[in-house]
Amino acid sequence: MASKLLRAVVLGPPGSGxxxxxxxxxxxxxxxxxxxxxxxxxxxxxxxxxxxxxxxxSCPSVLGPWESCRALLCSQNVPSPLxxxxxxxxxxxxxxxxxxxxxxxxxxxLVISLNIPFETLKDRLSARWVHPASGRVYNMDFNPPHTQxxxxxxxxxxxxxxxxxxxxxxxxxxxxxxxxxxxxxxxxSRGILHSFSGTETNKIWPYVYSLLSSxxxxxxxxxxx
Length: 225
Fold this sequence. Notes:
alpha/beta, 11% strand, Rossmann fold
């Protein structure tokens, strides 16, 4: 791993592919991906039905967004998180208050914002099912389980979270838009915001990869990610 520091966050509405982008960045650039959902599941011994965080969303409900991400960033289970290259919880900070609180922990080098059309997000979220214990996420349109309704690894039933039901999706997206606007404006005013628009992660990814390649050396080529 290179010694140069890079501290970044990936922002985007629910269903925008933040978790996927973070995983690809971590693999391609040797960054440490700080996933609050995984951290809390491990800390709670698997979590079961207690931690209900999807892999693509920033923080499960057990502590609340800021408390769980702060616990992760300060945890002794994460080796020197603020002295190495890292990518914090995808989708965090979600509010202006969280962004200012994060300022007290570290100074970000860049912020990646994913802009996905409303209709695309609505379709993605409505087709999303999860395995509660692990946080594995499936999409019935483009990433379905091998057997309908059950997790590929454990064979346990998948569930659709209440917030992913069609009637709840529109309200979630409006809430995100209202909360995220001042956060995006804050990082834009600092000159560290980089926005990427599209309907598919695979098409957005090359531009994200190009941006990061101009800052730090990749450990994998774009084709190898």
